[in-house]
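lol ok so funny story. i was supposed to be doing the assay writeup but got distracted and ended up predicting the structure for this chain instead. priorities right. anyway since i did it might as well share w the group, maybe its usefull for someone
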Amino acid sequence: MAIEFQPASAVDPVRLAPLLDARHCAHRSSEPLLTAADAEAAVRAVVSHERASGVVVLRAGEVVGYMVAELRENEFWGRHAWVGYAGHAASDPELVRDMYAAAAPAWIEYGARMHLSLVPALGEMLDPWYRLGFGQMQQHAIRESGGREPVLPDGVTLRAAGKSDLERVADELGAVVWNHQLLPPTFSGATPLDPERIREDWLQAFEDPCDALFLAERGDELLGYVLLYRDSPTLGVPDDAVHLSLMAVTPSARGLGVGLALNDFACRWAAEQGYRSITIDWRVANLLASRFWPARGFRPMFLRLHRMVGIG
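and the output, tada:
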């Protein structure tokens, strides 16, 4: 039966919510830590955005899918289209390809040739995006808090840090993760950050009392850190989750077990603070991260996919 498209702005979000709810139920069946979500509120937030752009697909008058992007612009990607956690759902995953074909021309007209989508980490939901030419960029994952007691390498200590430590971390290790992403095979292409920019970003930490920073040291030498904070609400992510935002170990200390100790310490701290789960994300092309975190028990939750249009 033929399908027809309408602008997303012309369709009541109430008609879209059941599609997202069904998608989320399937997602929850594969990941027990995910919680119920208010699908209608999530869809309303997407379609009501000032720069929302997308389509709804109907078959015999029934809504069977929708795809809505937020048209964005920043210093790293320029103009781009961002299909968020609640930005797409369909009764048949194959409709994703039709909806993208109908929605993307408006994104390109805006000047957005980089298209990104957050997709549940389920094969049948990822497959149509791959057949549209999208590739994996970022893995979003989750695990239970708690775990084993940290095993510290000889001479290494762990401690909680405060605001007085932020400038030191910024100066000595603030660019470690960023610079690592520039290396093969990640090739992030991002411009190395200015040291003053790094310092300014780090000094904004601890604005929330829930922020936590832990340092690994050997005498006066800073070997690594882990930073955790409460993340903004995400579709289905439990309220009692904490986000492991950054962890870095200085290159000279890698292989000693510092990263393992920091991870174990953070997971136990999270449980002691009443967080039942921990979320994290990493670049899938980052060899260290893509091997380290799954081995620490983090399970796929969403994948950020991306496509560059018009490059050959």
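Residues 209 and 229 are 9 Å apart (CA to CA). The longest strand covers residues 62-74.
back to the writeup now i swear
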